[in-house]
Amino acid sequence: MGQITLQQVTKAFGDVEVIPPLDLTVDDGEFVVFVGPSGCGKSTLLRLIAGLEDITSGKILIDGKDASHTPPAKRGLAMVFQSYALYPHMSVRKNIAFPLKMAGLSKAEQDAKVDAAAKVLNLGSYIDRKPGQLSGGQRQRVAIGRAIVREPSAFLFDEPLSNLDAALRVNMRLEISELHNQLGTTMIYVTHDQVEAMTMADKIVVLQAGRIEQVGTPLDLYRRPDNIFVAGFIGSPKMNFITGEAAAREGAHTIGIRPEHLTPSPDGGMMQGRVSVAEHLGSDTFMYVETDQHGTLTVRAGGEVAFRHGDRIGLTPMVEHLHRFDESGQAIR
Amino acid sequence: MATAQSRRLARWMSMPAIIVLLLWMVVPLAMTLYFSFRRYNLNYPDRQGWAGWNNYYYFLTDPAFAAAFQNTLVLVIGVLIITVVGGILLALLLDQPFWGQGIVRVLVIAPFFVMPTVSALVWKNMFMNPVNGLFAHAAQAVGLQPIDFLGHHPLSSIVGIVAWAWLPFATLILLTALQSLDREQIEASEMDGAGFGARFFYIILPHMTRSITVVILIQTIFLLGIYAEILVTTNGGPGTQSMNLPYLIAVTTTQQDVGGAAAGGVIAIILANIVAIFLMRMIGKNLES
């Protein structure tokens, strides 16, 4: 079991309130991703759940029991840190066995569990090395190994992939997703990378300045963002926003259109402009178009389009994918 | 990176310094060795010539030598134990956030800046004096017999004085080690269920081993040569109770026996090297990364 409920949780450092009252429920077995720009309080929120920071007010329930003031080790949660936080003087085996040793398990039980974890994560070949002799990806696996041997009711990940190179990040992303399918344990994952959030999450929690902007499935957030912040944060490249007369015609203060929902054409179209940069990625082409009426818009087109720098271009938005926002930035539906 | 040429250039350019250092070390050593085999006593300028192993024989069979050797070890080991254990505890304390941290840290380092002779005199006259010392007053205030520290427990008193002076050094180095410990490691161990004791022995202490090694090695070098504190407090006495090797060599020198003192110096060098080899064997591997 691993259901976590936050009720009116707040956190203040001195006079600075970093998390205003916040409610959230994480269901058992869910993969929840906290995403937001740096400094939005997502790591603080994770540390509150872990018990590494004390909540200022409110309640944290784990499996229905009040754990607001339970020490971290007693909450039955395991955490994987950004820096991996492996113990440098211990071998991989001892690192993984450490929580078991602290729990007072016998040597035989420790060995059995460490071997099982090593098998799941393919640590076999370097189980007797020290963390200093491992690559970033291997260290990450050891850190995850140390978390899974405790058989926690939920895993907490604090930006675990941010120290890895791009290729490895994609690999580890897959491995963590697979691990989640395999174990079926609740996972809470903090990241600032919306791609990670979109690809891994069952449920995304978008945070800004300690407040929850929106909670939903990845496609929910993509298709029906509640406000401008979520609309701009989710999706890559970012959504284009247009204000002024064109927006007023749609009865909104701001309208948003995703780059993939603008159809380019050599001439005609609803808007005209000039291509300033065209990035040909093979599968896709990203174009930055200086339109005559609405500033620079990003366009995502297929890999086969042949527009180059300086070309005149016409753009037509797909009207059914238009997002409308009022003056306070809330979506109009 | 370095080409053969730049390496050769580097070798040439570092040569003068190496030669100077070599001379600096080799010339006095050679002279000491030479004198140690000579009959050379300023009181008897007419007795000259080679002495063979006599100087060594007399120095080693001097009843003061055994005492001095033992006292040297007690002094070094005693101070090391007090400073390392005390240093770790003080470092743990100073690592906690508290009001006035900056001032307290400066105060803690202060004893290190007091000259050995001055600190020994202050201890001798202001604290340990059996009539006027603060300790005597404190003992009398609670109705106890004042203790004559330097008279009855000379060696332990000197260990205390020297440990007081070196505690800041150990504290400072161990405190920096403690501060370089990754916060996330502590938090990880907290999540893993380690209480304060387990965290200290499994995470904090292993992290500090390298610094502890450095403290032990550096202090040993200086503690083997303790002299000033003994000179101003006990003069090695009563008897030979607080005499260490450097002090014994100095005494030999003041008896104008240059040859004997040189032999004592060579013996001290050999003993110091034995200690060094022993230490490196025991803890030197901690310095490898």
How would you describe this protein?
- The complex is a heterodimer of chains A (333) and B (289).
- By secondary structure, chain A is of the alpha+beta class.
- Chain A contains 9 helices and 18 strands.
- The two termini of chain A are 37 Å apart.
- Helix content of chain B is 73%, strand content 0%.
- Chain B contains 13 helices and no strands.
- The longest helix of chain B is centred in the first third of the chain and has 33 residues.
- At the A-B interface, β6 and α2 of A face α9 and α10 of B.
CATH architecture of chain B: Orthogonal Bundle
Work out the radius of gyration of chain A: 23 Å
In terms of per-residue confidence, which ranges of chain B show pLDDT below 50 for 5 or more consecutive residues?
none
Query: Mean pLDDT of chain A, rounded to whole units?
Result: 89
Short précis:
The complex is a heterodimer of chains A (333) and B (289). With 333 residues, chain A is an alpha+beta fold.
